[in-house]
Amino acid sequence: AKANGRNNYQFYLPEMNSQASSLLNLERLLHQAIEREEFIIYYQPQVNIKTGKITGMEALVRWQQPELGLVPPEQFIPIAEENGLIVNISEWVLRNACAQNKAWQDAGFSGLRMGINLSPRQFQEPHLVQLVADILAETGLAPEFLELEITESTVMQNVEFAKTMLHILEEMGVHISMDDFGTGYSSLSYLKKFPFHTLKIDQSFVRELKDNLQDMAIISAIIALGRSLNLRIIAEGVETNEQLELLRRLDCEQIQGYFFSRPLTVENATKFMQEYWAQSWN
Ligand code: C2E
Ligand code: CA
Ligand code: CA
Ligand code: CA
Q1: Transmembrane ranges (predicted)?
Q2: Which residue, 63, 183, 187, 251, has most beta carbons within 10 Å?
């Protein structure tokens, strides 16, 4: 029994250690990631299904860690939020994605919008407004082609501060989008408080659209609401033709999802636009 107990002990302890150390390890590696240029931005197209045009891209960051491979944002963003590194990462994403959009616009893809995700921590930085202004000046991107995506939890932590920040950004001409709409508790009251241009219907409503009449009713209500408030509405997470057709019937104009395209590297996103825009002109 004694030997057994010891074996158990030895079995569990290293297991726990390795979990703890792998989190620490991830955090340690994250500290070096920016200067080692390990981040990469993927771009996912947003399409207006009425006009057949690509209206924008969402910038989605990935971490290409030499030993671990491609680390998805859901794994490292929470860590970066905790330790504050998110501020540097986000600044990097903002600068690069804005520069990329300017390059695309100069290459003829004019009118293309760039959606960039802001995290709660970043939103508490008083420097955010100045940073955005600097990056727009640096890259030469017109403010209306930058769309900052925020979720309810981003603004929830300090509603008054958030309101002030968003109004300043809005006055600068930057667009603001409410991400994951419908998943929080106070989405509706926030629509009134904050100067949003766009609503992104959360993927959870789109996912079961086929056999769920409730989701259908919710989406249809969101679209009606958004339209009456003069907002652009994007349905996220569209994966199938069936979902697309249902959304079309519900009169949803813009979609983003795997059905149309997965997030792409710069090269592939450029190719995609060349091919797609060429088609939509013919
Ligand atoms: P999000 O802002 O809601 O982004 C949409 C996520 O859904 C992306 O995951 C995208 O790849 C995925 N997606 C798009 N179309 C489909 C589809 O048809 N089906 C399914 N199943 N998924 C789809 P990703 O890139 O893994 O990003 C996850 C989250 O990480 C994002 O959710 C966002 O909250 C965060 N994130 C990504 N990049 C950044 C960033 O640069 N800064 C910050 N602060 N957060 C970021
Ligand atoms: Ca987003
Ligand atoms: Ca979303
Ligand atoms: Ca999300």
Answers
A1: none
A2: 63
| ipTM attached to this prediction | 0.97
- What is the tens place of the pLDDT at every residue in 50-62? 999 999 999 999 9
> Is ligand 1 within 6 A of the CB of residue 174?
no
Give φ, ψ of 140 to 5 degrees.
80, 15
Instruction: Report CA(77)–ligand 4 centroid distance (Å).
Output: 12
**pTM for the whole thing?**
0.91
Tell me the C-alpha distance between 114 and 136, whole Å: 12
Over its C-alpha atoms, the chain yields an Rg (Å, rounded) of 21
Residue 278 has what pLDDT?
73
Predicted pLDDT of residue 114: 98
Amino acid at 35: E
Tell the residue nearest (CA) to atom 23 of ligand 1.
237
